[in-house]
Amino acid sequence: MTNRSTTGTAGKFTAVIAGLGLIGAAVAGCTSVDTDSEGSTLERLQQEGTVTVGFAGEAPYSFMQDGELTGATVALHREIFKNLGIDNVEGVATDFGALIPGLQAGRFDVVSAGMSILPQRCEQALFSEPEFNYTTALMVPQGNPEQLADMQSIAESGVRMAVMTGAIEADYASALGIDAMQVASPQDGMDAVVNGRADVFALTGISLNWMKQNNEGAPVDVTESFVAEIDGVPQVGAGGTVFRKEDTELRDAYNEELAKITSDPQKYLSIVGEFGFTEAEMPDPGLTTEMLCEGVS
């Protein structure tokens, strides 16, 4: 959760994102969905008219703002599920690292977090076809005193790094032998940099730029986005919606509607453009979920 003990100057800069996280937590509760009813999950959702999504409060993908669930993945879900006869999208706030376990436990029907499609995750759940292409960026103290630019520069400098638990950047850090601090949310990562507990916070470029833009007075900078390299191999990444292993019918129906959006740049940007996404984030049609699940990038 958000660090509410922050005071003075640093506390002022956490207000915007902290507010989003606290509002999001209010909808979490002890919820569950009916996974034991007769018929398929798709049929149940169509009958109920509501799909419940798990989200981690990572703007601009899925987060709460002014008491409303919003974000690029939420906008995609509203469009796609409406076309499947499911008019309402409700959210359950969950730490990022608990999203797949929560899905498996029946706390929600799908995960709405733009989650990176990785082989180890594909062993636990089904993924839609890619919805976004990803690059990484670094949030650093204003002026970037350590002159950090990519994951290798962090490893070589020995600075204190923060990553979000369960995020792809945590895997990058581990592969490079970086002993990174784990945080539960983007807000916690920003707090760590502002308060001097970390020298750098790594996350997707689109998320860090959103945070910077919505905290204009914060004493932080965001580096240029980059494609991380591990052992000389570019880690080209993409994210999608997550489903339970048994929900192939729901996943396939979702993919059919998704393809109508990702194949049309104008349609795609009409849905996610207001959240800062551009054609650069559109999924590469040559990079499929099957390939990503096999570890091909």
Number of domains: 2
Radius of gyration: 19 Å
Largest sheet: 6 strands, mixed
Class by helix and strand content?
Answer: alpha/beta
Total strand count, please? 15
Estimate the strand proportion.
Answer: 15-25%
The N- to C-terminal Cα distance equals: 33 Å
CATH fold group of the largest domain: D-Maltodextrin-Binding Protein, domain 2
Q: Which H/E pattern describes the elements?
A: HHHEEEHEHEHEEEHEHEHEHEEEEHHH
Characterize the overall form: globular
The CATH class of the largest domain: Alpha Beta
Mean of all residue-level pLDDT scores: 89
Q: Poorly predicted ranges (pLDDT <50, ≥5 residues)?
A: 1-29
Any guess at the CATH architecture of the largest domain? Answer: 3-Layer(aba) Sandwich
Indicate the percent of residues in helices: 25-40%
Give an account of the 3D structure.
Residues 1-28 form the signal peptide. The model is unreliable at 1-29 (pLDDT under 50). The protein is built from 13 helices and 15 strands. It has 297 residues and is an alpha/beta fold. 36% of the residues lie in helices and 21% in strands. Helix 8 (168-175) links the parallel strand 9 (161-164) and strand 10 (181-183). It folds into two domains: 31-133 and 237-293, Periplasmic binding protein-like II (D-Maltodextrin-Binding Protein, domain 2); 136-226, 3-Layer(aba) Sandwich (D-Maltodextrin-Binding Protein, domain 2). The chain starts with 7 loop residues before the first helix and ends with a helix.
